[in-house]
């Protein structure tokens, strides 16, 4: 089957949803009704009772008409039998949210084996077990359990273009929540749990064919490294991955959380480099980096121009850029002369210091001079925003970046709550620190270089230098 | 003179304050009146006009009675003459906020030389030039120009215990602004500019004798490295320093901003280590780290226990701790047994995984078991807050940390806006990322180790290993 049934089912049975207090599966019926999901939603429980307006049945097999997807959240022991019934009913896909399978020892593994048999026999696909399920912001399909309608903007009120494959409910919630105050939004999100059938590679493949622009991964282990690499190589969309277990202690902690072998981190790191997967340095980058891809062109070179109206940030940005392997663009005399003509600049060399007294046109002129200069590949603007005209100038900058096909990683120095307000109110893709803005330039250039290497066919040679560590330089 | 005159003057003349539109010095009169500053405030301008309720005089010398401090914000050329008049008047200290001196070439240097002569002749001290001046939250004295009364909570509505020495107005504003949503607040802040007289060392010395608990530095250059080291060695309060210019490009940018030689960064780094100055990794740490000192005991060892109710964060924290040179505390069988008795924990080994269903007492019991365990030196709790009882338990944790004399670096995984709300509303010293919480443990332990070395007298030996780089381990 195509994985589409997991994201856009015409009909779905929520197995385990009842009116018992604190019933978790019922929260799935509730959010689907609240979001007015277009497909049919059924509740399956012993009493065959209706739940949050979803008609109830004692078994999947009792449901009249087709059931495309079954979401199962009951005690582990009952799951194999239900999966068999799903097969008999002709269900296409099952999402098993219950825990207690391979991560819980031999008995759990035996139940998993039984389920695997039914999947094969009835040609069904399975997500999970031990997962939260699926969210599709585009059609408001969501089978995450425990979501309270209306709270936290639900994490998916506005559909976006970033899709996630996440091996932890907590991280998923953090990422979706963070998008409430950001300029890019989620398209689809999947909590993959134990990956006993559908794994991260299958989903990457699927996201390569839908409206997704950026793919984000949070992994605690990789089920099949070779498959992940082969899949990633076929994908041209940016794949951003954060993986736990860089140390043996972190790895051990992850293994106790989700079932799976601890993976050798160096092997994973090399695999990422070869397959063009961008490895993230912190979980916050999972939500912070995608906007660099959705709002800006890729960074095609290493020469960055910094401009600021607070002198200190020029030096701070220069340190960060150099430490990340970039160069401070050497502005030509002609460019410097053009800059000097715009007004009372403190410094026309890079970092360009605008001084305190400027109007919108001066900002726009400086952006234009820097972006149009051949010696500049990208910008790191650090405009202190104390006037509305600066906001207006930055909005023009975004269009200019598209025009010149060069990116700007914007950082607006302010207390974090004010940064969030500016970003949310004006839709400016500002980062939350100069470090984060610098990282955005790094990941943008990594993606550019990977795509270029792909085009020139050089990536075949990668296999030869598999174990050879690259220089410390980040880009 | 004692530097007290800069922070608590009985009388102050604001030279340059007038009713001309956009007059910057007038904003100083305005904020002092708005804050009902207890001392006498005079305006000095050509027309001898009153400014924002401050009586006006044509010259400092015309002011009846004593003038303890003069704040000068006029064009550079006029400054030497005014400083001479201040001397003749018997003024104790001058704060020169005007720019255009040694940072502006030979002509500026000549004016600086003239000023230096008057300072010597009249036994005055000077802050600046090219600076923003001084803020004292305890008595509401503030001579920063450009502050709009009531806006942004002024950055100093609630006096605190963290004092800053900052070589950039932009960074100063960022730090003070960030404190609006944090649990610790500013005591005093000084924008030091060119440091032609009073330098960072003089101010560190001064902050060692007032109500300051933590000293923060933002430096673009060091005027006298030997003096800084000698001063820092005498201070037992934590000194946190961020310095620009780790690369030659950053260094060059800083030199164009504030007058001063670019300093060799490796020398500075070694000096910090020897003198117990804690070097910060990002400007955000300037406001994020102090709360670890003001709200928690120092970290006396390297064995950290992690506890979370979101399994993923156990692994994330373990990776970060190990990479920072800490150990995951090995919980004894007795401790594990005590933990097991508290409830349905997913994992009683470190990282302790609490699972989803817990009440306040279970949280408190786990905190108590971990803090009282000999094998644990400190905590990194990552409690997901979806119930008020968790907040209540964390508030008890803070008292328990004091009781057991062990710190906790708390991270509450949530979108950043929710973290700010929890911190502000409940006064919980939560950090904004697991990376930041880990850094807090690092800086806390650095300070502990420095103080211990001091006590045992080992620091004399430091000079012998001056050029020897330490291991990559951060603690």
Reconstruct the topology from this structure:
Two copies of one chain form a homodimer.
Chain A: H1 4-7, E1 11-15, H2 24-34, E2 40-44, E3 56-57, E4 69-72, H3 79-89, E5 93-96, H4 106-122, E6 125-127, E7 133-136, E8 141-142, E9 162-166, H5 169-179, E10 186-191, H6 200-207, E11 214-219, H7 225-234, E12 239-243, H8 248-257, H9 265-275, E13 277-279, H10 284-288, H11 290-295, E14 303-308, H12 311-323, E15 327-328, H13 333-340, E16 352-353, H14 360-372, E17 378-382, H15 388-404, H16 416-426, H17 434-455
Parallel strand pairs in A: 1-2, 1-4, 2-3, 4-5, 5-6, 9-10, 9-11, 11-12, 12-13, 14-15, 14-16, 14-17
Antiparallel strand pairs in A: 7-8, 7-10
Helix pairs in contact in A: 3-4, 6-7, 7-9, 14-15
From the 3D structure, determine the CATH topology of the largest domain in chain A: Rossmann fold
CATH superfamily of the largest domain in chain A: Succinyl-CoA synthetase domains
* Quaternary structure: homodimer
Helix content of chain A: 25-40%
Shape summary of chain A: elongated
Total tally of structural domains of chain A: 3
Number of strands of chain A: 17
CATH architecture of the largest domain in chain A: 3-Layer(aba) Sandwich
Name the strands of the widest sheet of chain A in spatial order.
Answer: 8-7-10-9-11-12-13
Q: What is the alpha-carbon Rg of chain A in Å? A: 25 Å
Q: Biggest chain pair contact, residues each?
A: A-B, 61 and 60 residues
Mean pLDDT of chain A: 90
- Enumerate the spans of chain A where pLDDT stays under 50 for 5 or more consecutive residues: 462-473
- Helix/strand-derived category of chain A reads alpha/beta
Terminal-residue CA separation of chain A? 39 Å
Strand content of chain A: 5-15%
Number of helices of chain A: 17
Task: Specify the biggest β-sheet of chain A.
Answer: 7 strands, mixed
């Amino acid at each position: 089957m195509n994985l589409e049934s997991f994201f856009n089912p015409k009909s779905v049975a929520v197995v385990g949803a009842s009116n018992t207090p604190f019933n978790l599966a019922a929260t799935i019926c509730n959010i689907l009704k609240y979001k007015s999901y277009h497909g049919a939603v059924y509740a399956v429980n012993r009493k065959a009772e209706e739940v949050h307006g979803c008609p109830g049945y004692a078994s999947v097999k009792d449901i009249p008409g087709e059931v495309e997807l079954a979401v199962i959240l009951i005690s582990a022991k009952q799951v194999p039998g239900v999966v068999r019934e799903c097969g008999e009913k002709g269900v296409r896909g099952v999402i098993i949210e219950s825990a207690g399978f391979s991560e819980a020892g031999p008995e759990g593994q035996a139940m998993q084996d039984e389920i695997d048999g039914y999947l094969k026999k009835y040609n069904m696909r399975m997500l999970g077990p031990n997962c939260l399920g699926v969210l599709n912001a585009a059609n408001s399909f969501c089978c995450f359990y425990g979501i309270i309608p209306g709270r936290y903007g639900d994490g998916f009120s506005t559909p976006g273009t970033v899709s996630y494959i996440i091996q932890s409910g907590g991280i998923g919630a953090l990422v979706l929540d963070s998008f409430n105050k950001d300029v890019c939004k989620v398209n689809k999100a999947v909590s993959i749990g134990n990956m006993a059938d559908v794994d991260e590679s299958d989903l990457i493949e699927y996201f390569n064919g839908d409206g997704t622009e950026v793919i984000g991964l949070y992994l605690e282990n990789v089920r099949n490294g070779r498959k992940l690499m082969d899949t990633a190589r076929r994908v041209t969309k940016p794949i951003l991955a954060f993986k736990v277990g860089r140390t043996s202690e972190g790895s051990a902690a992850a293994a106790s959380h989700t079932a799976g072998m601890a993976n050798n981190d160096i092997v994973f790191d090399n695999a990422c480099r070869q397959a063009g997967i961008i490895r993230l340095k912190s979980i916050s980058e999972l939500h912070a980096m995608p906007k660099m891809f959705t709002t800006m062109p890729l960074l095609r070179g290493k020469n960055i121009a910094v401009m600021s109206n607070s002198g200190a940030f020029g030096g701070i940005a220069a340190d960060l850029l150099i430490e990340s392997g970039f160069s401070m663009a050497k502005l030509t005399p002609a460019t410097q002369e053009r800059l000097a003509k715009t007004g009372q600049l403190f410094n026309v060399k890079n970092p360009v210091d605008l001084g305190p007294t400027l109007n919108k046109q001066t900002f726009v002129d400086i952006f234009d001079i820097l972006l149009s200069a051949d010696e500049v590949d990208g910008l790191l603007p650090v405009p202190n925003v104390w006037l509305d005209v600066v906001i207006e100038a930055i909005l023009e900058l975004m269009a200019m970046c598209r025009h010149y096909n060069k990116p700007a990683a914007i950082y607006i120095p302010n207390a974090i709550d004010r940064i969030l307000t500016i970003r949310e109110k004006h839709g400016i893709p500002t980062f939350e620190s100069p470090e984060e803005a610098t990282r955005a330039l790094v990941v943008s250039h990594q993606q550019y270089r990977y795509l270029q290497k792909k085009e020139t066919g050089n990536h075949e040679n990668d296999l030869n230098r598999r174990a050879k560590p690259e220089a410390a330089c980040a880009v």
